[in-house]
Amino acid sequence: MLLTEKLIRENIENDDDITHELLLLQKGEDLIQKIEANSLKIKLPYQSITKMDATLSGMGNITSLILDNNCIKKIEALETLYSLRHLDLSFNYIEVIEGLESLSDLNFLSLLHNKISKVEGIKKCTNLLSLSLGDNHIKSLKNDNSEIGELHHLIKLRDLNMSGNHLVEDARSTLIQSLPSLKYFNNVKISNEERLTNTLLPRHASRSKTYLLQAQEVMEKEGIESEDLLAQYKKWDEQLTLLESKMEQALKEMTEKINNRIHRVMENMTEGIPSVTAINDEVILARNISDMISTTNSTFDETIGKITALNAQTFQTFDEHIQQNDGYDEQVKLIMTQRTTLFKDQIASYLNAYESISMKHHRERMLSFKPK
């Protein structure tokens, strides 16, 4: 069955009870459907639909498209659905992730139970919050640029389902390292303990390499002359890497100081029964931990301010001294913004997790204290 105009018209819903009208315009022998609405949903599960065709192209206001449990083999005809936020194509026969380039505002994408073997075609969907790719034929996330392939573009992703794919690598720890916004993987919540264990410092070297490869790929595309652009990027990369290194060193020093204080408190325990001194030391320790984390947060804020100024200065240099290359310099700016956002989110996530775990352990130690 084709995705016909009549079928769509009969299955349009209003997401938020917003009044809408369907205006049918006659153009020759073709009946064109124009939908005027603020928020519309199309739900067509179990309809034996085999093809997504141009019928969708005139529906720019559609926010939710549900076509699960059909017979669709190819993702297509979505180029003009700029308002789409929710796309469900689960339980179909799709082999390749494609046709999503214009869906930059997409928040939810489900491709569960298809025949997909490679995670690709999603790097433009930078506002994705939830991605479901379970029960496909995916064995690896890697590509030439990143350990997690195109997923590293999804810096806002909170929920990722890859279950039932038999991945050859330890995807969970790698994803936790690379996506600080991720809260759930394969329907299991990521704990603060996991976040700390899998946040490897320093990581500025791997970030630098990953994003430099992306920038070079953009610059070299179609033989664009971009020596000035590449030189400016490398200069920016060196300065940013220095700032990242200093921030990560501050985190390392904070962690070492806190661990040393904890060790001294634990030494005051005898046979597992803490002394009065240990109790007092534990109370002081909690204050010290809070102060040290607060100091590191201030350093973090200063670092982010310096990075913001560095980006602004570099972007201005691009605009003033580098001729426009059909938008290639804008693509490079986007890559740079993604890298700095990732760094910011990784450090913020680490600090939040560290503070939470430190206070949790403090409470546990206090509860275990018994007077002699």
Automatic annotation (TrEMBL):
Keyword ATP-binding recorded: no
PROSITE patterns tied to this protein: LRR
A cellular component annotation (GO) from this entry: cilium
InterPro entries: Cilia_flagella_integrity, Leu-rich_rpt, Leu-rich_rpt_4, LRR_dom_sf
Pfam families per UniProt: LRR_4
Main location: cytoplasm
Organism: Chaetoceros tenuissimus
Keyword line: Cell projection, Cilium, Coiled coil, Cytoplasm, Cytoskeleton, Flagellum, Leucine-rich repeat, Repeat
Family: Belongs to the DRC3 family.
Name the UniProt record assigns to this protein: Dynein regulatory complex subunit 3
Coiled-coil regions listed in the entry: 226-260
Compartment(s): Cytoplasm, Cytoskeleton, Flagellum axoneme
